[in-house]
Amino acid sequence: MAGPARGVTRPATIVDVARVAGVSRQTVTRAVNDMPGISTATRERVLAAARELHYHPSRFGRGLVKPSGRTLGLLVADLTNPYYPELAATVLRMAGEAGWDVVLAEPSTSGAGDFAAGVDAVLSFTGRPFVGPAAGAPNLPVVDVDAPEPSPGHGHVTLDMAPAVEDAVAHLTARGVRRPVVLDRPGRATPSARAELFTTAFARRGTSAVVVAHDVAAPWTATTPTADAVVAFNDLVAFGVLRELRLAGVEVPGQVRVLGIDGLSVGRYVTPRLSTLALDMTEVARTALDLVLGIADGRTAPGTPDASRRVVHRFVAAETT
């Protein structure tokens, strides 16, 4: 007899289950997919045979019988950075509540063509616009989150930190900060947009900020040992700065004040607690998901003002500033 329980090493098939249960393949299909048209006793006999043979119907085969729900493709830049899993977890929950399945991937592990072909809409949170195969999916609903420029035909969610930058800089300068350092990503010919926001905000208050391209492998203190405040590129970098200062015996915030960006939940558990420009990940997920599902359902037209949304950071003062 066929199937693992009968001494055969290959995976059991629907034919094997039908033979053991003494029914047709169509009856097996009805039983494993909980379809009407067969008796309770027959259904139980088929399911018992399936369990005995360790049979599991293929996803493709089941999809032919039962149309599956729609699938959202969620692209995130880096799953090793807690910033992206926090967003992904919220999207997964909210998409599930809306009846959508979610496929999660990083751009480096997913070709645009294959990814676009396997989903019904795309939510891209990678810092750049999603580029898919127009010929293969010309009307694929796409929403880019925090991309530098809106792409034609896409929805776009802007993460606006400008108001929070003003609040944070006002907070720092009011506490006597006069030699701030802004840590930027290395390898850039010019400062990033967020570094420019901070240098401009400090300049308006008569303070000149130094921008340092920060390589985490090298201490920033070697370049700017007299800094009295550090604006890290994100919360993860800020955690590294706090460790570096602690090892050097520098008091925070007594000698140096430290500010992060992102508002990661883990920041509440470091000592001292990190001040940061926080994002409400639930609001980001809800805004982006509502937009991409609205485009998919025809409620929102890409390229219109309604296809562009904005979520604002907020300054959260804690113990490091």
Q: Can you tag this structure with a few keywords?
A:
Rossmann fold; 12 strands; 3 domains; alpha/beta
What does this structure look like?
With 321 residues, the protein is of the alpha/beta class. 35% of the residues lie in helices and 17% in strands. The protein has three domains: 4-65, Orthogonal Bundle (434 Repressor (Amino-terminal Domain)), CATH 1.10.260.40; 71-159 and 281-310, Response regulator (Rossmann fold); 162-278, 3-Layer(aba) Sandwich (Rossmann fold). The protein is built from ten helices and twelve strands. The strands form two sheets. Strands 2-1-3-4-5-11 form a six-stranded parallel sheet. β8, α9 (235-247) and β9 form a beta-alpha-beta unit. It is elongated. It starts with 13 loop residues before the first helix and ends in a 5-residue tail after the last strand.
